[in-house]
Amino acid sequence: MRTPRPAAAVAAAPRFPVLRGRISADGTATLDGRTVEGDARDPERALLAAAAATAGLYGHPVRLHLTEAAGRPRRLVVSPAGPVYPESTRQRSRHTRRDHPDPVVPPAGGEPRPERPRRVDRDPGDLDRLPHPDPPDRRRRLADRDPGAARMSTHPVTTSPVRTPRTPPPTTTATPATDPVQPSAVTDPARPDAPVTPPPATRPGRGLDVEDLLPARLSPAGRPAAWGWRGRVAAATGGRLRVRPGHAELRHRDRLAAVHRPLVGARTVVVINPKGGAGKTPAALLLAATLGAHRGSALAWDNNETRGTLGLRALAHPDANRTVWDLLADVDHFQTVKARIGDLAAYTRPQGEARFDVLASDGDPARMAQVDAVEFRRIREVLARFYGVIVIDTGNNVRASNWQAAVDAADALVVVSTYQADTAEGAGWVLDHLRSTGRGQLADQAVTVLSAARPATHPPVRRELIEHYARVTRAVVEIPYDPVIATGQELDLFALHRRTREAWLAATAAVLDGLSPTPETRRDA
Length: 525
What we know:
- The protein is α/β, with parallel strands linked by helices.
- It folds into 2 domains: 7-208, no CATH class; 260-519, 3-Layer(aba) Sandwich (Rossmann fold).
- It has helices at 7-12, 43-58, 89-98, 136-145, 147-151, 210-213, 228-236, 247-259, 280-294, 310-313, 324-329, 331-334, 341-344, 373-383, 401-408, 421-436, 440-444, 459-472, 483-486, 498-513, and strands at 18-23, 29-31, 34-36, 62-68, 74-78, 84-86, 267-272, 298-302, 349-350, 357-359, 389-393, 412-418, 447-451, 475-479.
- An 8-stranded mixed β-sheet has the order 9-10-8-11-7-12-13-14, sandwiched between helices. A 6-stranded mixed β-sheet has the order 3-2-1-4-5-6, covered by helices on one side.
- Strand 9 (349-350) and strand 10 (357-359) form a beta hairpin.
């Protein structure tokens, strides 16, 4: 009866980790449930490259169980350097038996016990001298591509077992092992007629570098869930169980990606509706707050031709009470190279955790002067040096020069309205005015924001307004009723209901989707 193998020897045998890859019918490649980004025309190449990077992190080969939508499953061995070998029973036994032979345990009588027959792997160079199971024409085709490809198209060949007495192995000096033949293609042993698959791509003239060893970057849809029961499951398992996010979380991630998209140069977003009470001031304030919270470098500017209310609805600060007229008095200083954003902070009002600033209009009832188009352009030129996105709240007089100057400087328009008929009529009128004055493209690319001023809306009116503005503007976003907005008091983004904040994130994402990434193609004053 054979002596059992000691536990220490069994533990010493390497057990390569198993990765599970899948290629769906639409060409999406996943590795252990994570989406792998890469060339959509060759998802298998991207999957093998991600497996090689994972093997590099482990420091030894990994086994890849690959499943395709149409085809039989394949089992491969992927090494850190990139070569891919078909996995077979003989290769799995070679990893655990040849490198770690059974220890010699003499029987009780003192005589060595005869060794149990086992398979002995032949040298890879002997494969060419042994009968080849592939058809000769296939061997020639593979040899024309790469001599190593024909050799790797079959299982390793082994000789018949030999019975020899088990004796203690002699002590020898270890010699460095030679590298195996580097294959240039991967084939499925179960399907000898399958097309040859190229190995993971590496840059010519070198091996893998640090970028190749980094884990594959996951798309927003491929990251594990963080909301609801899905997020709780992922947190409870320490990330070992990766649950796909729900539809609401995926939409939230898409909106964040739109808000975070890179933009070169300062951009101007103008909020318009000639009807008072349409919600221009809350819209300008909350658009700038959403930009500041998720992007930074945002400013809300009250460009009302008389006394606006943006400063009243912004968060108050006892030391910040200057207005646009104070900035106009010192605008020459900010047009020099010595001007700094710290100097401009004396004229704006910070908005706390939302991380944006407010430039309020003048509240002095004795002042009768108005900001004209020339003064507007001077202020905007200064603000564009220090802020990435400027959101402008306009007045009700479309014939005022500063209103016209703001629309001419707009990179994007936001037309606001409630579900009341008179407010909606003002939004439609201003769009017609823009088209009649040669600004039709700006009107077509505008975003309509419909805000609920009351808890209940009339469904037929709501449906009619959505259908109408969806035809005449680029996008329509609805804002639900929120008592924090309806009270007319100070507006704090984080005091709003979560559903309201998500709606303003959707509106902000829709606005930024219409902006060109570079300033060369945008409208300018």
